[in-house]
Every structure is written in C-alpha cells, then in structure tokens.
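Per-record layout

source: Methylomonas koyamae
name: RRXRR domain-containing protein
length: 85
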Amino acid sequence: MTGDLSDTETAMGNRRPSRCLKDGRTVQVQAANGHPLNPCHPARARELLRKKRVIRVCRHPFTIRLHAEHQTEAMQQLYAEETTP
C-alpha cells in the first residue's frame, strides 16, 4: 500500500502508526546566549550532555544550552545532520 490512505481505510482501522517524531520527542536547543536554535533528536542531546558540551536548562520541555566554547562545533554538527538525506 503506497500513497495516501483513503477515508475507508482509516475508518476501518487499517492505518499504520507514523514513524516520524510527531509525538514531541525532540529536544529544544539554545545558543550560548539563550537564543533558540533548531531542535535536535534526544539521542543527539544525550551525546552532547555526555561530552559536557551542553547544560540542561529546563526539564519540561527538555531544553539544552550550548557552552560558548563548543557552540560553533556543535552547531555545525546539528546543521550537517539536517542537510544529509
């Protein structure tokens, strides 16, 4: 089955769950000065926390802030992930 599901398919319960991260499983990212950046995947946030390149700002919604000395390197990696298919 490819393409969009018709109304009868969704009404009968044949709809597959979405594999996208639409249920809020993203981590908000802030620059060192507090300005918001693009959100990242939770696994990426865990990696940055483990390497001590970010600090946790808020728990709900989970938000991290980049350290100033690591900001350029981490931002380059975040944007590189977005451009790769």
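summary: The mean pLDDT is 78. Residues 24-83 form a domain with the Ubiquitin-like (UB roll) fold (CATH 3.10.20).
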